[in-house]
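--- STAGE predict ---
source: upstream dedup step, 1 unique chain passed
mode: sequence only
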Amino acid sequence: MFSSREARWRPTSLRLTAWYAAVFFLSSVLLFGLVYYLLSSTVRAQDRRIMTGKIADYANVAQSQGLGVLLDVIRIEAEHEVSTDFFLRLQDAQGRILAQAVPLWWQDAPGALPDSLPEGEELRWSVWQRAPGEDVAEVGAHRISGGNVLLVGCDIRDRAELLGNFRTIFLAVILLTGLASVAGGTLMARRTLQPISDLLQTVQIISHDSLSARVPRRGGGDELGALVELFNAMLDRIETLVKAMREALDNAAHDLRTPITRMRMGIESALQMVEDPGPRAMLQDCAEDCERMAAMLDMLMDISEVETGVMQLRFERTDLADLVAEAAEMYSYIAEDKGVLLELNLPAGVPALVDRERVRQALANLLDNAVKYTPPGGRVKVGLDQGGDWARISVRDTGPGIPAEDLPRIFERLYRGDKSRSVRGLGLGLSLVRAVVVAHGGQVRVESAPGQGALFMVELPAGSVS
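--- STAGE serialize ---
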């Protein structure tokens, strides 16, 4: 059975976490990218709007008062440092400087910027860099009368610093957002898949024949909550039907026990009065069938009593080595007649608190199956060991093994893996084994593969022998 933690990190959980994290992270990146774009566009538009106003003022001076007045204005500003925030330059069509006012922050301005403006282009914006990656100023070039070009530049280092700080903050926030998106995605995936995890755990419990298990109800009226309600309702109905079937089978077994016993007694009486070999053989077959039916009914009743807790178990401190040896002795002659080697490895002093008769009955069924399905020349090994608080009894045979599709069902009532019925059996022996072992607080397991025999392991709580 898998744990909730294992289920939590199955591929579906990982995919959901990745999707949640990716959507959250990309949304944050897009949001911050949009904010950055709007901020940079707004600041640049503001600077250009101011420079456009300056360009318009100087162009109006040139148009209304003549180019000579504009040159005088620029020279006066250069001499008296009237404009300390803007770079001013007037150059002719060939790029020769006619006049300029250079602020202190741009003393190393290039000689020609730009070299020229193409015909038909009235305004061009460009960025001047003192060094690669170091933006200093944005310059607007405007054509005025006579083919001359007026340049107005604005210091953009504050703008670049503002945007650089924003990018730094943006990267830090994005890093935190990435971590938060993974944590949030994990939490959301866990909460989303928790009902599915509960359902899988319940199915695993039910697969071990515990129909009373139900999926926990965790509130919420969503589709998964509705699925849980429907699944639990289905389990309630299945459990009711299974209980009804078991009760019907138990009642039939109880009611048939008496007539089968009377029938067997009548057949045995008739055998004493019949001398003809033909009818006598038929009566003997009927007597054997009645014996098998009586054994099946007794075993069904025993299983029912154990499962319902009605059977009274008489616990006593027992050395399991002696108990296993007694059960093996009963089948040693059958194994010898069949040509099967029965090997015992039973260390003394393995104590347990058990009902001797019931455990002997369970061991007898395991040995009966092992000898029955092992071909002549094979072997059956019976082992016993103790580890911690558990005593383990193992029965290994060299028979044909159990197909993988039969392993989950071999402990069910009346189930037989041998579909051809080539080997006689009731299909109840292993059901009784499990019922008795579980009633003792133990467990029984099986390992097998076709062609490799089968290994049955019975684990019982160990205890000291007084």
